[in-house]
Design a protein that fits this description.
Strand content: under 5%
Helix content: over 70%
Distance between the termini: 36 Å
Largest sheet: none
Number of strands: 0
Structural class: mainly alpha
Low-confidence stretches: 423-437
Oligomer: single chain
Shape: elongated
Order of helices and strands: HHHHHHHHHHHHHHHHHHH
Length: 440
């Protein structure tokens, strides 16, 4: 049997798949041999017959090689390239040719290099090093916070880099699987600690709540997948009681705090006419630009022409400037491409049977999808203007780095989607006891 399996797996070019296939074949042969033994055949002859019935190991190995091999998501790669070019075209009006064109182009090239590195490095490493990576990453961000440029006492780069906690949290969830209520409690505690850390580092409550929302969705999805045990309803109820109510209370306190400034912004968003020139001035500009936009070409908005470029880029309104400069059709095309990109990510998540691959791809997809949705809603005036890291439309190396890592993980997960891995069979028992009871 060993020689048969060795010959078969040698035909497979993907070394990562060999162990899983070998385990599957070994289990199948032993199950078939056991059936022969029960009919009275000797153990050695039973195994030999089961191996012979498998067929030619070379032919089977070639077939397995065609099935269990890495795959490339060319659709997502093409969408990434097209959106990167579109991003440069959209950023040039706000930042100029030198920064929005040449410099951003260098960031994008570096981003593709990062995508390639993450793609070829097996994503399963996240499941092994996540617990150690969490404090290391926290220390690096803490140190970097004091050396990065500040704007009005804030570090804008931090509101982008903290999204890298998401794949690490996915790995921690994977490590906690099958731990029951205690593991769910630990996951909730880690999510809470991450929220506090992100709020401290990024100085953006909105970004911190995005990360909390994503981590909570990942936790509930893991519970529904049965990763923490079979008592799904009970675990879901415990998690909901421990997260939703405290988070709602905390959110209300944050909105009502700071002398009521955030509360006034929320009130102004729903009562635009009353606060057109004060708290709701940004939405007044959005309404004016969209109302005077042309199907193609530059719009007729006086307020859009009169605004200085920092207004658009600092408030995550690059898509709005795109509509003002290039026309409504350009904005629609941009929204379609972003939607297509998110759908590719959703498709990767739906295709995952591996638990770690599911969590990692889901976390990356939620970061990209949530920022795309929020960015579109902000730029059409359906969501209060706040800090949004819109994919491909956020200027700077840190945003390009973060999304390169996330896209690299998505592609890496998809790469091994059809490959049997050691983790797939990690929970199988190594020993099997057969008990046979006969009536005399």
């Amino acid at each position: 049997m060993e020689e048969f399996i060795k010959t078969l797996t040698e035909q497979m070019r993907c070394a990562r798949a060999r162990d899983g296939v070998a385990r599957e074949l070994s289990d199948h042969i032993l199950d078939q041999a056991e059936a022969y033994e029960q009919s009275g055949m000797e153990r050695g002859k039973a195994v030999a017959k089961a191996v012979r019935e498998m067929g030619d190991p070379v032919e089977i190995g070639v077939m397995m090689d065609r099935i269990h091999r890495p795959q490339v998501n060319w659709g997502m790669l093409l969408a990434t390239f097209v959106l990167s070019i579109m991003g440069i075209v959209c950023l040039i009006p706000a930042y100029g040719v030198e920064q929005g064109g040449y410099r951003q182009g260098l960031f994008i090239l570096a981003g593709f290099a990062v995508i390639a590195v993450v793609y070829f490095v097996d994503y399963s490493i996240i499941g092994r090093i996540s617990v150690a990576a969490y404090p290391v990453m926290t220390i690096l961000l803490f140190v970097g916070r004091y050396y990065m440029p500040t704007v009005n006492g804030r570090v804008p780069v931090m509101s982008q880099l903290v999204y890298l906690y998401i794949p690490v949290l996915a790995g921690i969830l994977y490590q906690l699987r099958m731990g029951g209520c205690r593991a769910v409690g630990v996951a909730i505690a880690v999510d809470g600690i991450t929220f506090v850390i992100c709020t401290s580092f990024s100085s953006s409550l909105f970004v911190s709540f995005n990360i909390l929302l994503i981590s909570v969705v990942m936790l509930f999805a893991a519970i529904q997948k049965g990763m923490f045990g079979t008592a799904k309803r009970r675990l879901t109820g415990i998690a909901a009681a421990a997260i939703i109510l405290p988070a709602a209370v905390f959110l209300w306190r944050c909105i009502a705090g700071e002398g009521g400034y955030r509360m006034m912004r929320v009130k102004a968003f729903f009562q635009r006419g009353q606060y057109r020139t004060t708290y709701n001035y940004t939405n007044t500009v959005i309404d004016d630009v969209l109302g005077n936009a042309r199907l193609a070409g530059k719009g007729g908005s006086v307020m859009g022409d009169g605004m200085d470029f920092p207004f658009f880029r600092d408030n995550s309104l690059v898509p709005l400037m795109t509509v003002h400069v290039y026309g409504i059709l350009a904005g629609i095309l941009l929204a379609i491409m972003m939607t297509l990109f998110v759908l590719y990510a959703v498709q990767i998540v739906r295709g995952q049977k591996n638990q770690l691959g599911f969590l990692v791809s889901m976390g990356c997809m939620l970061v990209i999808g949530l920022n795309c949705i929020e960015g579109i809603l902000v730029n059409v005036g359906l969501f209060p203007v706040t800090t949004v890291m819109i994919p491909f439309l956020t200027y700077g190396g840190s945003a390009a780095l973060v999304y390169a890592v996330l896209i690299g993980f998505l592609l890496s997960v998809h790469r091994y989607e059809k490959v049997y891995t050691r983790e797939t069979y990690a929970d199988r028992p190594r020993w099997r006891v057969n008990l046979k009871i006969e009536k005399r």
